[in-house]
TrEMBL record:
Protein family (similarity comment): Belongs to the intercrine alpha (chemokine CxC) family.
Keyword terms of this UniProt record: Chemotaxis, Cytokine, Secreted, Signal
Pfam families: IL8 (PF00048)
GO biological process, any: defense response
Protein name: C-X-C motif chemokine
Length: 96
């Protein structure tokens, strides 16, 4: 391999390592758009997922998976039901 080719390869590798550290989206990438619903029927809940703030999204998100393949709903993290789910989720993760 000639010197020019080696320099080009090294430049590409260098640029790739620098760009990897930058966020792709300036505002983050939250899964929930908008405030979310206030409550969901408890009987319809199959699973609750709590996503804590991170580099991708600076807010807490509570995602409810509904039974019978009815999809997912974002629960407003400030709602009473979400606060209960977050507390229970925190207790479970702190025990493990």
């Amino acid at each position: 391999m000639n010197v020019k080719g080696m320099v080009i390869v090294l430049a590409v590798i260098f640029c790739a390592t620098i760009v990897q550290g930058f966020p792709m989206f300036k505002w983050g990438r939250c899964l929930c758009i908008g405030p979310g619903v206030k409550a969901v029927k408890v009987a319809d809940i199959e699973k609750a997922t709590i996503i804590y703030p991170s580099n991708n999204c600076n807010k807490i998100e509570v995602i409810i998976t509904l039974k019978a393949h009815k999809g997912q709903r974002c629960l407003n993290p400030k709602s009473k039901q979400a606060n209960i789910i977050i507390k229970v989720g925190y207790q479970i993760t702190s025990i493990l």
